[in-house]
Design brief:
Layout: E1 8-9, H1 15-24, H2 31-41, H3 55-64, E2 65-66, E3 71-77, E4 83-88, E5 94-102, E6 105-109, E7 113-115, H4 124-127, E8 130-133, H5 136-149, E9 163-166, H6 176-187, E10 199-203, H7 207-213, E11 220-224, H8 230-236, H9 245-259, E12 265-271, H10 279-288, E13 294-300, H11 314-326, E14 330-334, H12 355-371, E15 376-379
Parallel strand pairs: 1-2, 6-9, 9-10, 10-11, 11-12, 12-13, 13-14
Antiparallel strand pairs: 3-4, 4-5, 5-6, 7-8, 14-15
Helix pairs in contact: 1-2, 5-6, 7-9, 10-11
The structure holds iron/sulfur cluster (SF4).
Iron/sulfur cluster binds next to helix 4.
Amino acid sequence: MTTSTGKTNLLGLTQPEMEKFFDSIGEKRFRAGQVMKWIHHLGVDDFDAMTNVSKALREKLKVCAEIRGPEVVSEDISTDGTRKWVVRVASGSCVETVYIPQGKRGTLCVSSQAGCALDCSFCSTGKQGFNSNLTAAEVIGQVWIANKSFGSVPATVDRAITNVVMMGMGEPLLNFDNVVAAMHLMMDDLGYGISKRRVTLSTSGVVPMIDELSKHIDVSLALSLHAPNDALRNQLVPINKKYPLKVLLESCQRYMSTLGEKRVLTVEYTLLKDINDKVEHAVEMAELLKDTPCKINLIPFNPFPHSGYERPSNNAIRRFQDQLHQAGYNVTVRTTRGEDIDAACGQLVGQVLDRTRRSERYIAVRELSAEADLAQSAVTRT
Ligand code: SF4
């Protein structure tokens, strides 16, 4: 990937791509591993710091390459340890990355696009429209920045980031090549060494690309469902008109079957008051998913200005959960005060606005972040 400086940005190169790069400049392939360790394990962006690389090669690299992550605009830390970074990408827009600590687990929620074209009706990101795809360097750069922020470099056994979810801003399957490259780097031992079970791609249902994904990588899959029937999902998630539930669930089942292990689909369901939160919706959902091994995450909606939707009552949430539990599903409810900064698909705000409005929205994000309560209740499938 050549940047505006005319140099190759090494941050987003997978191992084969890095080897190809060193080939192209007449250097030995083993240099790829050396340099990747400096970048991803040690957080280095300065060739002069690479002390096991000869001075001559360092000078050569300075001429034709660089290590450039997105620019960090702000980093906010909640009292509960949750962190949120706003980073500016090459298109000039900003995206958000969120880290959620929970016991021994630390989950990083990563964005794949600035804005989103899919226009889900309850989604703040979707309301901003699409701005740009992130490059592979901008996707993995969010992990790189977070890792450095934690002081997790040099890499240790007890890494702060144990899980990554491609569940931030954008539809990751519509930025396929860059997202797949970045996920390979997340899993590569020369990158971040995260287990394939702990790297999750969340999609709203781009069916052809779900099938394509299985040919390239074996990460975990999450589906942003949000409705138990086509009529309602057509309203909430417009891409459903193109890829309705039957074909969508079949593609998810195909993908999961290629993993060849006891791994299950994660189904994300944002609960919207009086829209999709009735017991009959839960009954319909239980029937819909009966042939799809899955676990269900219920996400009570967190209102944002002019969203037109409200958060259901706690009783309504409990009734919905109980109904699914009785049907035999593993159901988790993510309960929040203010914004759920787990940054589930559709929860991120303020990234593709003009500068003045953007700064106002960032303040709002920080205030909401400070209120976040990530208490979760889980019911284990019986
Ligand atoms: S919910 Fe996800 S796919 Fe839908 S508009 Fe928002 S970011 Fe895009």
